[in-house]
Amino acid sequence: MPTSPQSSFVTLLGEQVRHEFTASQQYIAIAVWFDDLDLPRLAERFYAQSVEERNHAMMMVRYMLDRDWSVEIPGVDAVRNAFSKPAEPIALAYAQEQKVTEQCQALFQAARAEGDVLSEQFMLWFLKEQVEEVSSMKTLLTITERAGDDWFQVEEHLAREPQADPDDASAPEAAGGVL
């Protein structure tokens, strides 16, 4: 049976798996809220974002398996389901992406402090990904705030704007494959 070395990186990575699964669930809650309001483009965006966060968690799981470290699949934290206007869930998502960026930076710094160059290299992809995630969510929040009460302006924006290609050949492998 694999064991995990006593390191802050391994501890933080296990915690990050929980954060990624929680983010996935939060994005499902946001998508369902938009879906219930008949805002299909926003719903689609957050359903896709949920799958992406799940894939990130499974990339981390695969990495731990590959390093022969123990893996425990955690439960998730509570998620918010109720909002009053579209800017609220998007602001929540933007703040969540900023927090994940901080968490990934802490993981990278822990790997560096421990001299774990393999883990340092592993985290570089996630840091690059977070730059894109924060920027994308900030843009969506700005568009939503500008649209005010005209929620369909956001839908039209999403219909016009190309979405990022989820197939990144440089992405780490996900346990069980990406969805």
UniProtKB/TrEMBL annotation:
Superkingdom of origin organism: Bacteria
Matches recorded under InterPro entries: Ferritin, Ferritin-like, Ferritin-like_diiron, Ferritin-like_SF, Ferritin_DPS_dom, Ferritin_prok
Residues engaged in binding Fe cation: 20, 53, 56, 97, 130
GO cellular component: cytosol
GO molecular function, one term: ferroxidase activity
Keyword Iron in annotation: yes
UniProt keyword list: Iron, Iron storage, Metal-binding, Oxidoreductase
Positions of transmembrane segments: none
Region (Disordered) residue spans: 160-179
One protein family per Pfam: Ferritin
Keyword Ribonucleoprotein: no
UniProt record, GO biological process: intracellular iron ion homeostasis; iron ion transport
Ferritin-like diiron domain ranges (all copies): 3-148
PANTHER family: BACTERIAL NON-HEME FERRITIN, FERRITIN
Protein name: Ferritin
Organism lineage string: Bacteria, Bacillati, Actinomycetota, Actinomycetes, Micrococcales
